[in-house]
Every structure is written in C-alpha cells, then in structure tokens.
C-alpha cells in the first residue's frame, strides 16, 4: 500500500541500544550474503567492532522487523478491502512497532467464524447495543428493547441479551481494554496447577511437585513453567491463570464508561462481565501463557546454547596417538587405536570383567605399544570406572606409567555410532567399534567429533524436548558454527560434518571438499580451494580465514590471517627486512611493527591488531589447556557415598536450577542453585560451566530414586 522503502535500522538500533551506523552496516553486509562469523572477524571496521553476540541479535531483530512489516502490509490490505481503513486507523497501524498492538488493532476487522454478536447484528440489535454503550441519561432498557421484538427476537429479555452479546464482543476487542487486562494478568496474575485425579490416583508421576501449585506468574521460573506445561500436555495437570476479577472488572467498568446514574448501567456491567468471562479473559490467558511459554522456551534454548558452547570448546588433548575403549561387562571392552589425526588403525576386544581372562591386560598393552599411543580414553558409561582401573593396572604392570588413562563422556556416542555419518566413515565396522573411535576422537578434539552428533543427544539441555524444534535447532546450529569458526578447521583432516559449519560452506560444499581431497590428495594452499567444484570467490571470501593448511608453502595459510590481507603482511615483512616465513610465528618481530603505519583505506586499527596477534601466535588454539578429571579411587557406586564426603567432579550440565556433576558413580549429582557458591547466585552460569572441574561435598543420597545432592560451598 506504500512505495516507501522499509528501513529497519533505526528501530533495531534503538531496541538493542547499539550505534545506528554499526547496525546499518551489519544489516547491509548480511543482506549481501555475508556470514555472521565473517562479519565479526573480518569486517570490524564496518561494524564498529560489534561482536558475534551483538551481530546475531541484529540479525534476529532485523528478521523480526521484516516479518512485522510484512504482517503490517497484510493487515492494511485486508482492512482496505473491507473499505474500513480510515486515515486515523492507518496512522495507528503504521506507527506501532509492537506486534501485539498491531494484532489488537486488527482484531475488530478480522474475519472470524459466526459469533453470538454477529448473529445479534443480523437480527438488527446493533442500535440497542449502541444505546447500552452510550449510557444515556434518558430512556429505559425494557421499554427501548420492546421495539426490537419480532419473529427472530421473541421478547424484551431476548432483545437485551442479544444487544449485550454485541457489547461484550465490542468490549473484548477494544485495544485499551485488552491492554489493561493483559497488563493486570502479567503483573498480578497467578499460575495454578492441580493434579487430575483419574491420572494420578495410585500412580507416581514426574509432576508430583506441581499437584497443588499456585504462584504469582512473575515469580514462576522458566524450568517450572515448562515442567507444568509438559504435565498439562500429558494429561496429569490442570493448569490455569487467575486474576482478582473484581479489581480488574472495576477498572474495565471505568474504561468502558459505566455511568452509575444511567438506567443502562446494569446492562453494560452485565455485558462486561459476560464478555470478560466468555471472550476477553480466555483470549488474554492464551496470549499471556503463549508469551510465557515463548520466554520459557527462550530461556531453555539459551541454557542449552551456553552449555553446548562450553562442551564444544572443552580443551583438546591434541594430535597424539590414543587407544580408545568402549567399556562393557558381558560384551567386553572394544579397544580402538587412532593415530594423531584420529585415523582408525585397528581394534581388539578384551573381556576383563566377566571372566578371568589373563590375556585382557596384555592385549590392551600390545595395542598401546604397537601404535605408540600416549593415552587411553575410556568411555564413562556402564563399566567405565571398572575399565579405568583395569587399564591403569594393565599399563602399570607393563611399566607404561607415563601413558595417560582418562575418562571421556560418551553421551551421544551411541547416536553417532548408528548415524549416517558414522556409516559413511566406517561402513564395515560394528556400531561398538564406531563408538570406541568416537570416544577416542573426543579426547583428541572434542569439537571436531561432537559436531557429528545431534546436540539434543549430548545431555546438556534443559527441557529441550518441550521447546519448539525449529527454534532450538536454529540456535544450536548457530552455536556450533560459532565454535567451529572460533577455533578454526584443519582442511586436510576435517570431516565433512566439521567443514559443514565453516562460514559459507554448508553440507554439499563440505562433501565436495572432502571428495576433492580424496581424489587429489592433501591441499597445499588456501588458493587451491577455488578448484573445488562449486566453491566460488564469495564462498572463498567467507570461509578461507577459518580454514587452516599446515605445511603449506605460504605459512599464512595455517593462520587466521585472511588471504585478502596477505599483501599487507608481505609489506610488513618487507619493511622489517625479513621474509614472510620468518615473521610468521616470531612474537619479537611482530612486536616491532608500527601499527599506525598500516592503518588506511578499508584497513582499520582492529584489523591490524588482529593480524599482529596472529603473527605472534599463528593458528593458536583458543581453548583451555587439557587437564584430565580425577575421581576418587574409593568411590565407585552410590553405596560408597556418605554425607560430608569430599569429592572432585566434572560439570556435565548446567540448568536454571543448578548444575549436574559427574563424580564417578554412574549417576550425576545435583548441586542446587543455592549450593553453588558461598554467595548469592542468580544464574548458575555465573559460577560454573560444562566441562569444568569442581570440588563438591555430598549432602544426601537417595538410593531408591538414585538422587545425589551435592554442595560446592566451602563452609
């Protein structure tokens, strides 16, 4: 309806409290097909140095603003087609940036199924309804209503009832009334849940904490709301919102203009109460509960995203040969040998737990020696602690005390083993051998291996199955991509699953890169990537800086310096009187470079600083140094735990209500939010993260329910 060009920049900048120039530049770059990691790393001058989190927020706000604008035009067209688009209404519709207000303004014009009010209008009762709304000082409802009695309206009571139906609908669709009731519900509403008797009589459920739940809506924690909603969906709980109706209705009466001295006051008040109960509050309740659900889902997604990021960015053991063990009692322990790049070399199966097989230890030792392994990675699942002890004893008896034996989480390993990715990698291997390989690779490089597993299977979420799948998937994909590009990818050893997440590449190009590598051998330069079918200049621009080629003729190919800045680095080297290969990796030489000398044109100070940092430590892994977990040797089962026992554990999951910690007994313990620190903690992520080693003490053990309560407090 308008030829005006939609520009979301000012609104997005205001909403996010970010500079208009930077927001505009980011939106322009995104619109041109640039990726978030590329903009954050290599276009700092344009964005004003905005980081990935801010750029992601801009992208989300930009998309939301575009969707709102599209909806606005649909609404304007729909009302115009009805011939009811007045200049004042159009002004209001165009002025609002609030999605809910936009829908409230549209509500009276929205085509809907036949209502009682519409039926009343067809019977000619609208004039009587207007009398009720006007609250005149003259006339009498019964006398005035008598004029509307006819074949379709049998008596005065029926006429007034039909008129009240119209008034009730008008009231329920008024923007100001809806805003009042919505605000009252959000601010003073209470959420309640009750057990449904037929579903809970004589049956234990997961929702027992909510059988008599009642709490102010504003104080309901996100995880509690998701649990209550799940209980409702499973038919265990009856859930509702309530407000103090008398107080709210008194305010609605004033807003609707109930005139106590008018003979029509009773009719208007009756219509308001009927409309509130039958139309308005059910609609507002659905809206508010929908908004709370959206908020709670958003909280759950962010908890999952934070945990996933910390999990993916766990310290890597690095390029070292390892033997990985997928432990088991009856079926034995599958042992797989991997070279420093994660290439599978061979396997054996040993049975140290179900028989007195004296060959088990020597077989493991022989595999370690044959492949020069410097570590043994043992999965943390069933028989994990027993297998750790077996491996340590076997290596000690063989004099291999310098070989590290370490527990590795196998969450999601079985999912990987049965996946298409695993079948493509190892079509001739059994699932359990694939699982062992995955365990070993997780030790060598957690990020490279975990990207092959659906994040939902990694055990670091909070009510992820209650979250809209598309919302969760999009956010987690964003996290994975951010982590992959943050660390960088070695082109010559990366799997297609890992390459998929590099900026600009995606699944099909990732497969093409691997196929090209398989057919032509290892890449010898970044420029060679342009020979991969389908990988053009734009994709190369987005991806090249995040891809590493160690051993290339140009040492910059193994760094995070973008190829578009190679000429600048060559100039720096020339000015220092050294070849480029001497400059790369020499922190002393890099420190001699005068930063200001190279700032100019599209090269700003942020880019030069990044280049100098990379020259000092090219291709540096930003992850923490590897440090193995240490469990107590005398604590292996729940029965070994006693209140007050001090332990060291590893954080496996962080939720809104606390952190779960692996203490080596096949059952994670919970450190409640209130027990995470000696100070008040609002958000568990402020003090702990997934993968962190943490000192705890046992508070209590429930053997029947297999629950362990822990504390991280020192006092």
Walkthrough of the structure:
By secondary structure, the chain is an alpha/beta fold. Among the domains are: 101 residues, Orthogonal Bundle (Arc Repressor Mutant, subunit A); 189 residues, Tex N-terminal region-like; 123 residues, YqgF/RNase H-like domain (Nucleotidyltransferase, domain 5, 2-Layer Sandwich); 74 residues, Nucleic acid-binding proteins (OB fold (Dihydrolipoamide Acetyltransferase, E2P)). Helices cover 48% and strands 12% of the residues. The strands form four sheets. Strands 6-5-4-7-8 form a five-stranded mixed sheet, sandwiched between helices. The longest helix has 48 residues. The mean pLDDT is 93.
Record the SSE blueprint.
Layout: H1 9-16, H2 20-31, H3 36-42, H4 44-47, H5 52-81, H6 87-95, H7 99-106, H8 116-122, H9 126-134, H10 141-146, H11 156-173, H12 175-188, E1 190-195, H13 197-200, E2 212-216, H14 222-233, E3 237-242, H15 245-256, H16 265-312, E4 322-326, E5 333-338, E6 344-350, H17 360-370, E7 375-379, H18 384-397, E8 404-408, H19 413-417, H20 420-425, H21 431-444, H22 446-450, H23 469-487, E9 489-490, H24 496-499, H25 506-520, H26 537-543, E10 547-548, H27 566-576, H28 580-583, H29 587-591, H30 605-616, E11 646-655, E12 658-662, E13 669-672, E14 693-702, E15 707-711
Parallel strand pairs: 4-7, 7-8, 9-10, 13-15
Antiparallel strand pairs: 1-2, 1-3, 4-5, 5-6, 11-12, 11-14, 12-13, 14-15
Helix pairs in contact: 1-2, 1-5, 2-5, 8-11, 9-11, 11-16, 12-15, 12-16, 14-16, 15-16, 16-23, 17-18
């Amino acid at each position: 309806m308008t030829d005006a060009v939609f520009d979301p920049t000012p609104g997005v900048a205001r909403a996010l409290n970010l500079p208009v120039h930077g927001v505009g530049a980011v939106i322009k770059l995104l619109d041109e097909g640039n990726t978030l990691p590329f903009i954050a790393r290599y276009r700092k001058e344009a964005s004003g140095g905005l980081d990935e989190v801010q750029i992601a927020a801009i992208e989300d706000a930009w998309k939301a603003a575009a969707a709102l604008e599209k909806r606005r035009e649909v609404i304007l067209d729909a009302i115009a087609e009805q011939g009811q688009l007045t200049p004042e209404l159009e002004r209001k519709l165009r002025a609002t940036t609030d999605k809910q207000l936009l829908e409230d303004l549209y509500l009276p014009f929205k085509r809907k199924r036949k209502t009682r009010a519409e039926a009343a209008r067809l019977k000619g009762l609208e004039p009587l309804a207007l009398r009720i709304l006007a609250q005149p000082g003259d006339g009498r409802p019964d006398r005035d209503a008598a004029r509307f009695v006819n074949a379709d309206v049998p008596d005065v009571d029926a006429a007034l009832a039909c008129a009240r139906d119209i008034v009730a609908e008008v009231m329920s669709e008024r923007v100001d009334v809806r805003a009042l009731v919505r605000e009252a519900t959000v601010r003073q509403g209470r959420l309640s849940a009750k057990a449904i008797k037929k579903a809970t009589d004589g049956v234990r459920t997961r929702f027992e904490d909510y059988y008599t739940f009642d709490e102010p809506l504003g104080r309901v924690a996100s995880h509690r709301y998701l649990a209550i909603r799940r209980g409702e969906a499973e038919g265990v709980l009856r859930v509702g919102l309530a407000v103090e109706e008398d107080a709210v209705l008194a305010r609605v009466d004033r807003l609707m203009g109930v005139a106590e001295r008018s003979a029509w006051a009773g009719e208007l008040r009756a219509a308001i109460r009927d409309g509130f109960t039958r139309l308005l509050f059910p609609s507002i309740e659905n809206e508010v509960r929908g908004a709370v659900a959206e908020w709670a889902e958003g909280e759950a997604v962010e908890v999952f995203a934070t945990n996933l990021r910390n999990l993916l960015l766990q310290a890597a053991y690095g390029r070292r040969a390892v033997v990985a063990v997928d432990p088991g009692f009856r079926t034995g322990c599958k042992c797989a040998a991997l070279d420093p790049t994660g290439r599978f070399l061979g396997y054996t199966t040993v049975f140290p737990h179900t028989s007195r097989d004296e060959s088990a230890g020597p077989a493991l030792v022989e595999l370690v020696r044959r492949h020069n392994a410097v570590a043994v990675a043992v999965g943390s699942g069933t028989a994990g602690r027993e297998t750790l002890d077996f491996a340590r004893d076997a290596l000690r008896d063989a004099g291999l005390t310098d070989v590290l034996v370490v527990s590795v989480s196998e969450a999601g390993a079985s999912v990987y083993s049965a996946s298409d990715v695993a079948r493509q990698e190892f079509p001739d291997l059994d699932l359990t051998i694939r699982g062992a390989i995955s365990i070993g690779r997780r030790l060598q490089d957690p990020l490279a291996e975990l990207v092959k597993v659906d994040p939902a299977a990694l055990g670091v979420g909070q009510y992820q199955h209650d979250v809209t799948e598309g919302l969760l998937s999009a956010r987690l994909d964003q996290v994975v991509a951010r982590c992959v590009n943050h660390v960088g990818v070695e082109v010559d050893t990366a799997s297609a699953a890992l390459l998929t997440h590099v900026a600009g590449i995606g699944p099909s190009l990732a497969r093409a890169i691997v196929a090209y590598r398989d057919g032509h051998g290892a890449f010898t330069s970044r420029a060679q990537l342009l020979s991969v079918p389908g990988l053009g200049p734009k994709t190369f621009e987005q991806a090249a800086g995040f891809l590493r080629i160690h051993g290339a003729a140009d040492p910059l190919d193994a760094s995070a310096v973008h190829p578009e800045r190679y000429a600048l680095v060559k100039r720096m080297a020339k000015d220092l009187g050294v070849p480029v290969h001497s400059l790369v990796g020499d922190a002393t030489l890099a420190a001699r470079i005068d930063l200001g000398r190279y700032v100019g044109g599209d090269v700003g100070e942020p880019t030069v600083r990044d280049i100098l940092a990379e020259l000092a430590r090219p291709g540096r892994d930003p992850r923490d140094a590897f440090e193995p977990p240490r469990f107590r040797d005398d604590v292996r089962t729940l029965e070994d735990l006693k209140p007050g026992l001090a332990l060291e554990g590893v954080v496996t999951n962080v939720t809104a209500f606390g952190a779960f910690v692996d203490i080596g007994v096949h059952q994670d313990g919970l450190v409640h939010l209130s027990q995470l620190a000696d100070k008040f903690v609002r958000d568990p992520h402020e003090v702990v993260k997934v993968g962190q080693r943490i000192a705890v003490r046992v508070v209590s053990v429930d053997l029947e329910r297999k629950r362990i309560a822990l504390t991280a407090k020192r006092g």
